[in-house]
Design goal:
This protein is mainly β. Helices cover about 10% and strands about 35% of the residues. A 5-stranded mixed sheet has the order 2-3-4-1-7, covered by helices on one side. Strands 5-6 form a two-stranded antiparallel sheet. β3 and β4 form a beta hairpin. The longest helix is centred in the first third of the chain and has 10 residues.
């Protein structure tokens, strides 16, 4: 059986997945960030997180600095936000904007 594929914002992870993310990346995930672009050609950044039945791409908030580079904008205690859960199934399209 193939794993389900989901894109989910860091702010919307449940406590179990946040704990798993911290265990998977104990020294931070800056070196594991992947840059993708949406349909508007705007970049967004994700880190992979795998469970027994699901492959997550966890969206990480970034801000563009004065030098034109991106800085992590991570707040572990963030509440709310949009529900960015997307079951992308077998045909993952990084340009999909939902």
């Amino acid at each position: 059986m193939e794993k389900k594929r989901v894109i989910k914002s860091l702010e919307n992870l449940d406590s179990d997945l946040k704990t798993l993310l911290k265990k998977r990346y104990p020294d931070g995930f800056e070196n594991s960030l992947m840059r993708l672009t949406n349909a508007k050609n705007e970049p967004f950044f994700v880190v992979p997180l795998e469970t027994e039945d699901t492959m997550y791409l966890v969206k990480i908030a970034v801000t563009r600095n004065s030098e034109g580079e991106y800085d992590l904008d991570v707040d572990d205690d963030a509440d709310g936000g949009d529900d960015d859960d997307l079951d992308v199934g077998d045909e993952y399209d990084p340009d999909f904007e939902g």
